[in-house]
Amino acid sequence: MQTSLQHPSSRLAPLALGCAYFLMAALALASSRFEGGLAFIWGANALLMAYLLTSRAGAWPGALIVCGVASALSTALWGMGTLAAVPMAVINLLEAVIVALICRRFAPGGKFAGSMQRLFVFILALCGPANLIAGLAAATVASALTTVPFASSLLQWYTGHVLGGLTCTPILMMLMRGELRRWFGQTSRRGKWEALGLLLLFALATAFVFYAARYPLLFALLLPMVAIVFRLGNLGAAASVMILAMIGGMATMTGHGPLYMIPGTLGERMQFFQLFLAFSFLLSMPIAAELNSRRRLFQMLQESEARYRAIAENSGDVVLNISVGGVIEYASPAAAEQIGCAPELLIGQDAANLVDPADRDQVIATLERALDQPGEVQTVEFRPFISAQGSEWCEMVARAVVDERGLPTGVVSTIRDMSRHKARQRALQQVAALDSLTGADTRRAFLEKLEEEMLRVRHGARACLLLIDIDHFKAVNDCYGHGAGDRVLAGFVERLRPGLRGGDSIGRLGGEEFAILLSGTDVVRASMICERLREMVTAHPVQIDSGEVIPVTFSAGLVGLGSQSDAQAVLEAADKALYNAKHSGRNCLRLAA
């Protein structure tokens, strides 16, 4: 039967459930109808609720049918008779279904023994709508068929079903989920002997309190129960409650124990005992749930720590743990290679000492942002103060570490050498700034230089812009082909460069149109430079692949920077001067008006 109940999908599960329900119901009715009405002790519904909460919804109809039949038979044979059999069966099923639906809706998963939230939802569902509705209906039936008043019947139902459900349902759910079997498979022999010893001692203590003690010492059992929970967890809590229920229940029903000292009927004493049993269980289960949560958290922490250590100690990046005050608390082995300092020597040092003084404020601000915004990752690039490999640039990625209250306790950061990346970045920028055919600046790069030069001119510097167009270049492409045209363009720039000074720039604006930025010179000096360039180009024709020599000349427009408001106005003025040069016979220079 136990095997079938632990596997709700088994075909024998409904039949085994019905038999178990019938036995529990019959035993409760035969032994605890102290006043001739409802049973004072009722754990059968706990069995049904545990089954509904641990099985798939498709298995519910069969379980409800067999339990309904079992409830009707037990009521007819040992309860209030055949008239009450069907109504009481419906009421019992209603209670279990309400609890199961509420728990499935608000606490999916059903492992109440390991979750405070799920246990709380179960308690509210059982003590609230389930037994308020079912209790009113049961009290109506009982008061109509027996001499017990409505209020007394309601109290009997509510205490018996609530206390029985609270005590038995989580225990039965653990058994149905196979937690006992897993515990036996995962626990060492020493752990099993320890569990047996603790439970045996608790059984002896319970027997002493209920059979031998001259004073009411129920409180004395709470301490060993808590100790068992700390050592054995959920199953320890369940086992101790079962021991307490069997020994204490038998003693109370036979006229022994501290509860027998309370004046009242046997039914009232059994209600007090169930109340004590439920409170004992509710004391131990939250502790067990919290311990389980802490064990899982500790295990996750250990796994996370192991992963962190493996990554930190085998990574090429430097990993640092930095306190709130900016002091290094841990440095990974990569620090010896990347920073040139043994990790143990970095501990206790200010993290800012690793940064070039020019970048320290920026790095400190990044670490402070990481502490102010614990959930976000902060990144900063800086130049190291010292480096074993001569690193020029490093990148730091930082994130705050928080405690259980969400308050930052420090920063975990990784430092990576960015020198190669920076070099590639500069190389790519340089490639993007140069015309692939001629080696001159691209239009965009040249215009940026023009803007910078105009800014210097506004502060008193002098400069000129020379706009150049190769004469009759279209005829070169038409007669010799575009390959020859490309060779002319490249050779043209080659012939111009020797005539330029170190601070001058040449750019290709498009096609055969070029521009030269002459820094630190006025229009007169720029005109002389232009004439020298024109003579150099004319004196050295370009030889193409076929061996033929192509003479090259150019027309130019010159404008001095300073009078124009922006780069576009400068280009327009130079373009007008170039237009005049082309219409003046070409191979000449014209000044902007």
From TrEMBL:
E.C. number(s) listed in UniProt: 2.7.7.65
Bilayer topology term: Multi-pass membrane protein
Chief site of localization: membrane
Subcellular location(s) of the protein: Cell membrane
Gene3D superfamilies associated with the record: 3.30.70.270, PAS domain
Keywords: Cell membrane, Membrane, Transmembrane, Transmembrane helix
Matches recorded under SUPFAM superfamilies: Nucleotide cyclase (SSF55073), PYP-like sensor domain (PAS domain) (SSF55785)
GO molecular function terms attached to this record: diguanylate cyclase activity
GO CC, alphabetical: plasma membrane
Membrane-spanning segments: 12-30, 36-53, 60-78, 84-107, 119-145, 157-175, 195-211, 241-260, 272-291
Stored PANTHER family: DIGUANYLATE CYCLASE DGCC-RELATED, REGULATORY COMPONENTS OF SENSORY TRANSDUCTION SYSTEM
Name under which the protein is recorded: diguanylate cyclase
Originating organism: Sphingobium indicum (strain DSM 16413 / CCM 7287 / MTCC 6362 / UT26 / NBRC 101211 / UT26S)
